[in-house]
Amino acid sequence: YLTNESVFSLTELPKRIGIIGAGPIGCEMAQSFAQLGSEVFLIESQHGILPKEDREAADIVQKAMLADGVQLLCCGHDLEIKNDGGIRLTVDSHGQHYDQPVDQLLVAVGRAPNVEKLNLDAVAVKFDKNGVEVNDNLQTTNPNIFAAGDVASMYQFTHVADFLARIVIQNSLFAIGPFGKKKASDLIIPWTTYTSPELAHVGIYEQDAKDAGIDIDTYIQHFDEVDRAILEGDEDGFVRIHTKKGTDKIVGATIVAKNAGDMISEITVAMNNNVGLGAIANAIHPYPTQAEAIRKLGDQYNRTRLTAFNKTMLQALMRWNVGR
Fold it and tell me: What distance lies between CA 74 and its chain's CA centroid?
């Protein structure tokens, strides 16, 4: 079977490909092969795709994937893989039984840490099936040994591994005097699923806020009200930003758009530097751009500040100016 690494070694397009797992890698590959002309069967045990993402956002991506020809077999169970002169998948999905031959099989259901031959027991470094145990400074249970990357984080992204490595360098070589130690928990981590449209996220989801007892306000801007998106035919999508209730402090955001991965960086920079949603509204954005949707959310926040008292004071001020 293929993985997200070996799939790029294919030298010809498979006529039929089965993909197990509708997470980011499974969705990216399924849509890509469908756009290239393969018949794609995407199998997922849960309902829909991208089970960890905002449901409304994932539904928009799913609609686009189905339009590209991906055959989604979700809520799949009793999956069997046979290889009797060719690969054959059998699975039950939504009350229907499928018995489908494929030319290639891609498994995209997650990764396992590769630590078996490191002899970590000999140096008192604890690990399990999920990876190496580290503290917030990325020290292992042997304080002289650090770990970074997929093996030491729940966020298995290249850009996260990069910044975790920076923390290891800081803490192992320079955590003396004025520099201090860096913490992995201080990182504000964005990520993107590179489908068409892209789905990008940073910070917490609405459900995360509920689970943590955090009160939030939510602002949403659909792209069918953004001129650049309308001009380019990219009206399906939105920007959703969560702020701490009663303030403009951004605690999370989701973007579904053609270039969502580029747009999420503006919000990540704002969160890293405690720039609120109101301040974003005050920053001039070029017109017409899709990023104008983010500024429009700042305008939405500013309008909430027009309380009944403020409105009364403004009306009184206007009457006074007219009277002059």
Answer: 20
Strands 71-73, 39-43: pairing is parallel
Q: What is the pTM of this model?
A: 0.90
Q: 121 in a domain, yes or no?
A: no
**312 within a domain of the structure (yes/no):** no
Check pLDDT > 80 for residue 37. yes
Alpha helices for the chain (secondary structure H): 24-36, 55-67, 158-173, 206-212, 227-231, 260-272, 277-281, 292-304, 308-323
Dihedral sign for Cα 151, 156, 161, 167, please: negative
Q: Is 303 exposed, middle or buried (0-12, 13-18, 19+ CB in 10 A)?
A: exposed
Report yes or no on 103 lying in a domain: yes
Q: What is the pLDDT of residues 3-17, one digit of tens each?
A: 999 999 999 999 999
Q: Are residues 77 and 142 in the same domain?
A: no
Tokens 């077999």: give the residue.
Answer: 73
The region, left, alpha or beta by phi > 0 then psi within -120 to 50, assigned to residue 195 is: beta
The per-residue pLDDT for range 171-192, each reduced to its tens digit, is: 998 876 556 789 999 999 999 9
Q: How many domains is the chain built from? A: 3
